[in-house]
Amino acid sequence: MPQLLDSADAVTLRRARAAVRAHATTERRRRFAPLLHLGVPGAASLSVAAHPATTDHALRCDLVAAMLARHDGEHLLWLTRPGELELHDTDAAWLSAALAAYAEAGRDLTFVVVTRHGWWDPRSDVRRVWQRIRR
Questions:
Q1: Disulfide engineering: 59 pairs with which of 8, 55, 71, 122, CB 3.0-4.6 Å?
Q2: Which residues contact 58 (CB under 8 A, 6 or more apart)?
């Protein structure tokens, strides 16, 4: 499975930045439930509540597979949550489910965790952080 690298293609990096921008400009609460998104940030995307305590691994895999089945073409899978860009249980739970669902579908996974200040790929540890993201 490919990971984001510092030399990732410009389209993927723009999508990750757009996900941060959309999250920072739309989510004003300090505490909120994590959401898993699949699609193109700022355009068409699907979202599902992503709190790992409410689902088990099999259900998370099924949710990712269902989202993947509804979206053809290039896209990004991203998890929005509060907090810092370090590994949380939620990140690990959804990354594991995404890896299984994408492997079953035979597709390449690009997964990032998004907070108000940046994005992070938990597999490669590549991240981008902004103090204040501009529109």
A1: 55
A2: none
